[in-house]
């Protein structure tokens, strides 16, 4: 007979948390192919119980993004001339965190709407780095877009390498070239 302290009465909602959901998703293997049914099984709850906490895969990715962006963003923001080393630190943290979760970079590289504050937080921090470098707001925004799409695309390519007999450049070479080209300048403008 089952212990009454460990059994749930019928119909009682599963006792899980957002943290447990994220932990189970992060340890599940390829996040891009993880189904909600598989996640529910990992959490030992019904499919319906999971949907009480997470409405769909997009919301699941938003929860995972919150955790990963918390791990990526340095506690201190960029300061003056230190914007390039700060951006390099952020890019390396993205490299380490995103590639540690198979399927994550692939998923976020696809066009979709992020509904979390997490990408807004990283966007604001990176734009601040570029404004600290002396850029006008519009060019800082353009530089953010170049930075994030370049880094995420490189990471997604690592998860899905093309069999062309060529390898992507090492991350340190890629990042060095990217950061030397940033911030964005108007065409024809002279570089500092």
CATH superfamily of the largest domain: Tetracycline Repressor, domain 2
Q: Count the domains.
A: 2
Question: What is the CATH C-level name of the largest domain?
Answer: Mainly Alpha
| Total number of beta strands | 0
Q: Provide the β-strand percentage band.
A: under 5%
Largest sheet: none
Reported CATH architecture of the largest domain: Orthogonal Bundle
Helix content: 55-70%
* Secondary-structure element string: HHHHHHHHH
CATH topology of the largest domain: Tetracycline Repressor, domain 2
Query: Structural class per helix/strand content?
Result: mainly alpha
Overall outline:
elongated
- Give the CA-CA distance, first to last residue: 76 Å
Low-confidence stretches: 1-9
Query: What is the number of helical segments per DSSP (H or I, 4+ residues)?
Result: 9
Question: Whole-number radius of gyration?
Answer: 20 Å
Mean pLDDT: 86
């Amino acid at each position: 007979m089952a212990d009454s302290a460990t059994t749930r009465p019928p119909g009682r909602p599963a006792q899980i948390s957002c943290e447990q959901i994220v932990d189970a998703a992060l340890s599940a293997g390829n996040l891009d192919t993880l189904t909600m049914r598989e996640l529910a099984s990992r959490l030992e709850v019904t499919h319906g119980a999971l949907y009480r906490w997470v409405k769909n895969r997009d919301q699941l990715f938003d929860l995972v993004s919150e955790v990963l962006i918390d791990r990526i963003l340095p506690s201190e923001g960029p300061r003056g001339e230190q914007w390039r080393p700060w951006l390099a630190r952020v890019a390396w943290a993205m490299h380490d965190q995103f590639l540690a979760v198979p399927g994550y970079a692939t998923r976020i590289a696809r066009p979709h709407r992020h509904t979390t504050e997490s990408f807004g937080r990283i966007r604001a921090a990176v734009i601040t780095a570029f404004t600290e470098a002396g850029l006008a707001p519009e060019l800082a925004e353009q530089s953010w877009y170049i930075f994030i799409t370049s880094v995420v695309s490189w990471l997604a390519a690592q998860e899905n390498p093309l069999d062309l007999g060529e390898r992507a450049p090492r991350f340190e070479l890629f990042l060095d070239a990217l950061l030397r080209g940033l911030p964005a300048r108007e065409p024809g403008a002279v570089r500092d």
